[in-house]
């Protein structure tokens, strides 16, 4: 049995909703890029053996950051068309290039979530769920369902037992690789790693995390992340 824990950070997206000239993971926060803050969340945690950053083939920014990580267990893989393809590329890197065992625990974390608390990461790793686990927060707001393609309310959704999925999401290397491969082959749209495990009929564990673990998606999120990091 492997006791190693590795992290994959898919960073091949362009972040169109940020309305910026450069990908959101390379925007600046307190003198560093968003991605640097995100990588630091894992390098600073004693349980993490290494990090694989998955970038696009056309990425012109990672080359400037890579030298900072020499000797720090940070590796690079090339991503694919969608997030799921990039995550799969990272998983294959762990299997084929680093020759890690199939039962190695793997975390997948959004590049644009730089505010992950060390306590949340520790809690997720402590879950040791056989079929995976994710950080999540219970839905507290009233949830409205709109008519398809319209900005008109159809009905109110029952919020009991609804959760906002966060990252990182945790699963064994071999299991997650198989789940993503099978779901992609079946044409399933995967919005996170848990949805691939769900496709196999599995039920990953929900571990309540801190709501400050936001994903930078729109311009206002950058200021909020800066506030949380300063706090």
UniProtKB/TrEMBL annotation:
Q: Gene behind this chain?
A: ispD
Q: Tell me a Gene Ontology molecular-function term this record carries.
A: 2-C-methyl-D-erythritol 4-phosphate cytidylyltransferase activity
The yes or no answer to whether the keyword Nucleotidyltransferase is present is yes
Name this polypeptide is given: 2-C-methyl-D-erythritol 4-phosphate cytidylyltransferase
Taxonomic lineage: Bacteria, Pseudomonadati, Pseudomonadota, Gammaproteobacteria, Thiotrichales
The entry sums up its family as follows: Belongs to the IspD/TarI cytidylyltransferase family. IspD subfamily.
Which CDD domains does this chain map to? CDP-ME_synthetase (cd02516)
Domain of life of the organism encoding this protein: Bacteria
Site Transition state stabilizer: which residues?
17, 24
């Amino acid at each position: 049995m492997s006791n190693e824990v590795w992290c994959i950070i898919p960073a091949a997206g362009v972040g169109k909703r940020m309305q910026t000239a450069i990908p959101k993971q390379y925007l600046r926060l307190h003198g560093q890029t968003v991605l640097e803050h995100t990588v630091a969340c894992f390098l600073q945690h004693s349980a993490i053996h290494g990090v694989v950053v998955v970038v696009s083939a056309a990425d012109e920014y990672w080359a400037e950051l890579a030298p900072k990580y020499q000797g720090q267990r940070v590796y690079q893989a090339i991503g694919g068309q969608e997030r799921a393809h990039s995550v799969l590329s990272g998983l294959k890197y762990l299997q084929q290039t680093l020759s890690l065992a199939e039962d190695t625990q793997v975390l997948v974390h959004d590049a644009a979530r730089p505010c992950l608390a060390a306590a949340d990461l520790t809690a997720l790793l402590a879950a040791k769920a056989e079929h995976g686990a994710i950080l999540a927060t219970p839905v507290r707001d009233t949830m409205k369902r709109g008519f398809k393609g319209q900005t008109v309310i159809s009905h109110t959704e029952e919020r009991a037992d609804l959760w906002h999925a966060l990252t990182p999401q945790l699963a064994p290397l071999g299991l997650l690789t198989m789940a993503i491969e099978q779901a992609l082959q079946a044409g399933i749209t995967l919005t996170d790693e848990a949805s691939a495990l769900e496709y196999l009929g599995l039920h990953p564990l929900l571990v309540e995390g801190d709501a400050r673990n936001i994903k930078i998606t729109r311009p206002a999120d950058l200021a909020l992340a800066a506030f949380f990091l300063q706090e």
